[in-house]
Amino acid sequence: MAKMMYRDAVVSTIAEEMERDENVVCLGEDIVGGMGTPGGPEAIGGIWSTSTGLFGKFGADRVIDTPISESAIMGAAAGLALSGKRPIAELMFADFIGVSLDQIWNQIAKFRYMFGGKTKCPAVIRMAYGAGYNAAAQHSQAVHQILTGMPGLKVVMPTTPADVKGLLRTAIRDDDPVIFLEHKALYGVSGEVPDDPDYMIPFGHARLSRAGQDVTIVSTGLLLGFCEAVADKLAAEGIGCDVIDLRTTSPLDEETILDSVEVTGRLIVVDEAPPRCSLGADICALVAEKAFASLKAPPLSVNPPHTPIPFARELESAYLPSVDKIEAAVRKVLGYR
Amino acid sequence: MQLSREALLRAYRQMKVIREFEERLHVDIQTGEIAGFTHLYCGQEAVAVGVCEHLDNDDKIVSTHRGHGHCLAKGCDVNGMMKEIWGSRDGLCKGKGGSMHIADVDKGMLGANGIVGAGAPIAVGAGIAAKIDGKGKVAITFSGDGACNQGTTFEAMNMAVVTKAATIFVFENNHYSEHTGYQYAVGTSGDIASRAEAFGMKVWRGDGTDFFSVYETMREVLDYVRVPGNGPAAVEFDTERFFGHFEGDPQRYRGPGELDRIREMRDCLKNFRKSVTDAGLLEHADLDALDAEVLEAIEESVRQAKAADRPTAEDVLTDVYISY
Q: Could you say which residues form the signal peptide (chain B) (predicted)?
């Protein structure tokens, strides 16, 4: 095991897979950084430091610094993937799917189906998402709710550096297109990461980060840590919470969620995206449909409100689900009569 | 360079297959037996064939909603295509794609495309792959005078130049983006090639109703783009669309006698026949024999399509993922 930051797990995994397979190529805006400047290539190395050193190691053919052209980046990833390469395309901010969505949604996600199963499109689309930087309405969003609903895509949302390592490796080696959502507020978080060069975590297998008998809390990403804090606090009161880190929202590990709810009878989903047609609504509906007889209280989803993400510190804090809001939700389902 | 007799016969046959495929669809669609939206390529055959006769399976093309001609010219199976358009389970895409999504990646045909302007970025990726592989292969995107106005096309042209992708932008100006004239919608006074040139590419122009103009122009374009390091190029072919934007389009935008005139004066098959017979390269009888053979082949494809297995409800659920 080695201790490393979430962002270093991203770049080291990409480097290892590029070393292993010459068909793996990267592309994105400023992933080299400094092209065409006095500072020269790698003057920056990607604004999230998730591509540092790749250009020096693998060269311009395989580490492709692109203009600010998100549609063309995603389209190029599509064309590379149909031509035998395994592209890893970076969208600097997940919010920019708005300018590139056709290539993700109508092209990459659908090639295999539209072409009658006769092709594959092994593209990984990485993007930094999430609030916590006071970056306001166009640079803070959690977009999994949009992408999870698109057949043909797999959607991955790692929470820990070890999961970044295992899930990103799986994504790069997967023959289907994968959306890999990296929470920007987690990039600096450190954790133990397995050294095994083939360490992979299969998609659709959630991780139980806390175990308890009374309430099931489902989340992923930044908010998972909030859920763990609530579980730890309540444990001191003798209240036990199962905290489930989904890891992937497509495919969804229904079994782990349902097994847990069958024991606890209570469900909280903590989701960073707005409430309508959300992951929370989806999982609450799943449990209502398939574990109705086990329920001791109505399933509850904790989401931000149905508003854009505000800028000011006080406003962003009020917008996001917090430890207090999650604790209140847990107490509400425990107190349901 | 003079084409061999075999090459001439092959080119004519390819164009004739596209023509008769589309003419037959135009008739069959009116019976209501074929579902969905269909956009016919009739009139533009010289472009698809004049381009694709230079290519092999390792060269890629990305097509459009008006894609049947590109597919056939790139080697997609006639029977498989007809079955696909009829929605058969045995169609080229198992009846899941239909007219606008025909693809055969093994043949280098990366898909027709229902989204106008979506193909150009994909061809940039394929062109970057060709550049990386360094074997002198190319990726070609076909775009009309409609798609040339999409931002995706602009992004793709710039990105191709910046990355030195082995990509060729083939613009087919058939004078109508759906139901709107190119002189209205293409801001550079209808000139697409000069716009591509402004992105930093070498550009060519040719007559898209003349197979020999397309073929010889593309020889120059390909000689250039196949040289590693040269990067992309663009070419504009002026051509004609014999049918409407989609089947069922009332075409009230056409001028009086326009369709009769372009069918008479700007028909690539008639032009080809006149050129090769006037020059004594082929006899009318050679071409008449091909005409008959092609008509029978299309008839057979329709027979097969009508008799082919229909997809089942279970087929809805397959081919979404390789594993899930």
A: none
The residue type of B321 is Y
Average pLDDT over residues B23-46: 96
Residues of B in contact with A102 (CB under 8 A): 115, 118, 152
User: Which residues does A79 contact at the CB level (< 8 Å), separation at least 6?
Assistant: B60, B62, B110, B121, B122, B123, B124, B125, B126, B127, B128, B129, B139
Euclidean distance between CA atoms A260 and A214, whole angstroms: 10
The sign one gets for the Cα dihedral A267, A268, A273, A274 is positive
Task: Pick A113's closest partner by Cβ from B113, B126, B320.
Answer: B320
**pTM of the model as a whole:** 0.96
What ipTM goes with this model? 0.95
Q: Enumerate domains of chain B plus CATH numbers.
A: 5-317 (3.40.50.970)
Active site (annotated) includes residue A183:
no
What digits encode the pLDDT tens for the residues B114-130? Answer: 999 999 999 999 999 99
Q: What is the pLDDT of residues B252-262, one digit of tens each?
A: 999 999 999 99
Shortest Cα distance, chain A CAs vs residue B286, angstroms = 37
Beta strands A2-5 and A190-193: pairing type? antiparallel
Report yes or no: A71 and B155 within 8 Å, Cβ to Cβ. Answer: yes
Span B64-87, pLDDT tens digits: 999 999 999 999 999 999 999 999
